[in-house]
Amino acid sequence: MTLDFSRNHFELFAMPMTFAIDAERLDQAYRGMQAEIHPDKFAHAGEAEQRLSMQWSTRVNEAYQTLRKPFDRARYLLQLQGVDAMDAKNTSMPADFLLQQMEWREALMDAVENRDMTALQGLEKELQLQAKGLQSQLGHLLDEQKNFVEAGNVLRKVRFMDKLLQEVDAAYEEIE
Amino acid sequence: MALLQISEPGLSTAPHQHRLAVGIDLGTTNSLVATVRNGVSVVLNDEKGHGLLPSVVRYFADGTTSVGYGAQVQAALDPHNTITSVKRFMGRGIKDIPDLSILPYQFIDAPGMVQLKTVAGVKSPVEVSAEILKVLKLRAEASLGGELVGAVITVPAYFDDAQRQATKDAAKVAGLNVLRLLNEPTAAAIAYGLDNASEGIYAVFDLGGGTFDISILKLTKGVFEVLATNGDSALGGDDFDRRVYCWMLEQAGLHTLSDHDKTLLMARARDAKEMLSEHPQTQITAVLSSGEVIDLSLTEQAFNEMTDSLVKKTLTPTRKALRDAGLQASDVKGVVMVGGSTRVPRIQAAVGEFFGQSPLTNLDPDKVVALGAAIQANVLAGNKADDDWLLLDVVPLSLGLETMGGLTEKIIPRNATIPTARAQEFTTFKDGQTAMSIHVVQGERELVADCRSLARFELRGIPPMVAGAARIRVTFQVDADGLLSVSARETGTGIEAHIAVKPSYGLTDDEVAGMLRDSYAHAQDDMTARNLAEARVDGQRLVEAAEAALAENGALLMTAEELQAIEKRVTDLKLALQGADLVAVKRATEILNKGTVEFAARRMDQSVKKALTGHKLDELEF
Asked: I want to staple B173 with a disulfide (CB 3.0 to 4.6 A). Which of B130, B178, B279, B469 is the partner?
């Protein structure tokens, strides 16, 4: 008998296959699962159980990490629909979006150069607001309209925003 | 046929035998061993009543060693052969050691990890650490009156794969079964978490002799998650001593000092620091070898001023860790203090001010890590604690591969919950390429040169194809101890080449066996007897595990025939355990291990089902 890896991440935790997610319920399901199968529960058990427990625990961690983060969850939902949103061939973005990205990037560079903490915090707030907007758009496209192609386009925008927010984080460290 | 015990799942009827397990804090300056006795975690003392064992090992020409206080007081007599703070060298290459020139040791540059030349021969840091662990193991066995089932050994949260592997190897050389490597801050939180049954976000502020660590933990319903860690590997109580020492030189107008006077004044500086933890002012007096008398008065205020920048230096990593965790200082519900240096009142005040609350100091900051490790060891050994909690830990530093142009491609990101596995596909860049070299690195930097190199290996036998056609799938697996293994496979054509590596700093099983032989060649210990004893402990453990599993749900999950087959193997192993035949014990253990694979799989499925059912019950309540 082998591990039953055929269940998808949602099924594994008995969660509905939607972008909108009950985070608390996911947390509970994850913890409940780990409490049964984590290697710590088998530290004194036989070899076979130790190995299986590590494999299961790894699987459960992967599923949880994927569902927990909105970006990964959306990407995974699209994958289940046969849409590879992050396909390297699919790189075109709307011009106005790219222009806006460039403006934000310049603002970020200015803030670092002037060691302007207030400007950086302001930029971060604005970016977070934008990211939130994209996220609710994503939820609408995935759960209600089931427009997976358009959802893929929005997801790529989210990726840009995530990267920018990471750079803001790095900028904080640079200023300090 | 043996009588079969049948019981409800979850109600174990196995005889409740307390398995001896310990927690070990293998520290840079001091080490400790603790155990849970009558439900309470206690540090085990030596025959003189000392709980702390200075992490100092002295080698003699005849191959014998002296460990602890004895070695420490005589360190100045024999500096080349007295190894202090060996933890700094664990899993470290010669280039990684910053203050090489001021250390009195003769280092040998060996691949992966430095070695030390002593009067008793060349020693690896793994062997030196093993000497410390052996003393603690003996202490525990003498105190508990029996062979240990295993130990939980703590490591700093920032320890990379090389350092963790080296620690595990040291335990192996010392003859200890490692139940788990545990992060020090997590151990400290366990010590406090269980005592106070707390839930929420906790910070663990660990200022030791030479290192500073800050960790942000989340405690929820018995689950401990490490959200973020940060620190400064060159900041500790010693720096506070040095500030006082420099102030003394300045005040007394001293310039060049003999080694003896330096040691003397450093000790006085430390005494003064410790005095100021309880008094507003202290007097420092010393007579130098020249006969000159030093007599200075130091106030707490002056001390606070001269060490202010050090205190501030702890807050930068603290802010970073909070940011990594996506939290504010006000989200933190409690701050656990670890390490003797947290006794400094100014530190406690600064931490209190930063987090807006008084830090937790009711457990001894020198012992808290060992106490927590012992609690975890007790659970892992299968001595059920009342609180059925679970610990979830994370990867401290990102793990990745070198790609074209010396850049790092991260495969497993920092702070991923372990155990974890991730696969990534790569391809060939030349036509007809039949081999691919894989370089495994750890660290956050983009350039491979700035990261730590863990292993290099080659995947051969790739069928010749045009560039970009081969598909090489590289899989990283990190186990519950945080240790990495890497494998690579060419999947494009269905032809498989497969290799699993142990990172290059790691010791091969033969090398560990060789160290074991060496270390017992000097003691009057028979290697064969030792092997038999270890095989018996392993075998006994397996018998107990199998019987407990059978009693729990054997009848539920297996047919009568299958049960009979396993029971026969259990009986065979029990029989072998009564004899003194090493090969027979090992064989019977192996046969039982193989014979329980299917049963284990069904048990695991049962556990997963149980978790899901539990969850569905919750749903009904909505």
From this structure: B130
At B248 the three-state DSSP class reads helix
Superfamily grouping for domain A95-175? HscB, C-terminal domain (1.20.1280.20)
Better pLDDT: B394 or B184: B184
Q: What is the rounded average pLDDT of the residues B437-449?
A: 86
Comparing CA positions, the residue from B128, B108, B172 lying closest to residue B511 is: B172
pLDDT at B584 over 80: yes
Superfamily of A9-68 according to CATH? DnaJ domain (1.10.287.110)
Can B206 be counted among the known catalytic residues? yes
Tokens 């903490």 locate to A117
Distance CA B611, CA B603 (A): 12
Within a 13 Å sphere around the CA of B352, how many CA atoms are in the beta-carbon half?
A: 13
Residues of B whose CB is below 8 A from A169: 323
> Which residues are CB-contacts of B478 (< 8 A; sequence separation ≥ 6)?
B395, B399, B412, B416, B418, B419, B420, B421, B484
CB contact (8 A) between residue B223 and residue A35: yes
| DSSP codes joined into one string, B395-460 | -SS-EEEEEGGGEEEEEE-TTPEESEEEEEEE--SSTT---EEEEEEESS-SBGGGSEEEEEEEE-
Task: Inform me whether the pLDDT recorded for B496 exceeds 50.
Answer: yes
Locate the chain A residue with the closest alpha carbon to B420: A58
Q: Residue B15 burial (CB < 10 Å; 0-12/13-18/19+)?
A: exposed
The distance of B187 to chain A (nearest Cα, Å) reads: 14
- Residue with more model confidence, B612 or B70: B70
- Per residue in B123-151, pLDDT (tens digit) is 999 999 999 999 999 999 999 998 898 99
- pLDDT tier at B481 (50, 70, 90 boundaries)? confident
Give the three-class secondary structure for B477: strand
Q: Is residue B25 flagged as an active site residue?
A: yes
Contact A1 B598 (CB under 8 A): yes
pTM of the model: 0.80
Selected for mutation to probe chain A from B230, B607, B616 (highest A CB count within 10 Å) is B607
Q: With CB atoms and an 8 Å threshold, state whether B180 touches A43.
A: yes
B49 C-beta neighbours (distance < 10 Å), count: 6
* Residue of A92, A99, A156, A104 lying closest to A129 (CA atoms): A104
- Read off the pLDDT band of B353 (50, 70, 90): very high
Asked if residue B378 lies in contact with residue B355, where contact means CB atoms within 8 angstroms, the answer is no
Q: What are phi and psi of A16, to 5 degrees?
A: -65, 150
Q: Which residues of A touch B (CB under 8 A)?
A: 1-4, 13-14, 25, 27-29, 31-41, 43-49, 52-54, 56-58, 61-62, 64-65, 169, 172-173, 176
Whole-angstrom distance, CA of residue A78 vs CA of residue A88: 15
For B388, name the nearest residue in chain A, comparing CA atoms only: A35
Spatial separation of the C-alpha atoms in residues B356 and B50, rounded to whole Å? 36
Fold equal for A9-68 and A95-175: no
Question: For helices B597-621 and A47-68, what crossing angle results, to 10°?
Answer: 40
Domain locations in chain A as residue ranges: 9-68, 95-175
ipTM of the complex: 0.80
Q: Is pLDDT at B503 greater than 90 in this prediction? A: no
Active-site residue (options: B184, B225, B300, B402): B184
Identify which of B521, B543, B522, B525 has the alpha carbon closest to the alpha carbon of residue B533: B525
